[in-house]
Amino acid sequence: MSDTDPVVVQAVRTPFGKEDGVFADVRAEDLSAALVDEMLAETGLDGEDVDDLMWGCAQQRSEQGNNVARVVSLLSELGESVPATTINRWCASSAQSIISASDAIRAGQRDCIIAGGVESMSRVKMGGNDAYHPRMNEEYNLAALSMGMTAEEVAERYDVSRETQDDFGYRSHVRASEATASGRFDDEIVPVSTEGGIVDEDEGIRHGIDREKMRELPTVFKADGTVTPGNASQITDGAAATLITSRAFADEHDLEILAEIGNNAVAGVEPEVMGIGPVPACRELFERSGTTADDYDLVELNEAFASQCEYCRRELGFDEEIYNVNGGAIALGHPLGASGARLPVTLIHEMRKRGAERGLATECVGFGQGAAIEFTLPN
Question: Which one is catalytic: 57, 91, 112, 309?
Fold first, then answer.
């Protein structure tokens, strides 16, 4: 153990709202500032204690442009003295914020960083950035690189059936519904005040979902395909955040350590099958840590699509009983810039509930990447 070991002392998220749903009138900056202020209030810290704000966001334009992280620092209780940077690794943007924060603390460059991310997919719609470099059109079929078509390619190439995908989607909603009903998300969710009232639960979960009706849903991306609204992630608004410090800082400020941050890894894959990105990212992490899949008690893998989740689980050898135990993005939603932090937030709280010693958070990334981070409970 070292004084510069990075540890998580707070891990929170907003509820997730469906596209054009409960957060349609709430800006990304306001979703973000609510989490930042909550973490400061819970820890008793103020802006003078925080070295940096690292904030993920995938669609960095319109309201989410102009270094949205710096806007958050100025509008929150952090204030002018706290610098801020907006990070983009698409679906792993906020995972990268956690990676960058933990690396900086481990290197002794920082002591206290707020790391997370946000996406308002209601207010900043997908598809607005289409000015690709001309060579991209020469090297790739860009239509085949849309996330939905990559999910279809994974299903076809790696033999993941429609039935398997529907079963996975059904399980995600059932597990998320049960977790909500039993209060398993209560510790991680910060209620958000809107003009329509207080939002304190995820909006997209289909409580009482009918498995047979799921099987009847039409495909979305390909007429003879297998990907439907029931086995794909939902377009969503939300934010998630962690407060990461050095072990010495946590001890000095009498902060409870929720989890220790271990190794991390990122990897690249063929863009046409971007969903398999967690496989090489996890394998690289295993090599660095001297671990195997069997060494992890809980795993959160972002449910961009059921096809890639099932392939990754099968290929990496994770047991279904430790895999996305409270559901995932198919039920909760996938606000692009927030999901990479939502996974560790949910993971850490569930690890503490179960006394799970080691956990793993991982996700695929558009245009062919993967990211993975491991966490352990403090000794």
Answer: 91
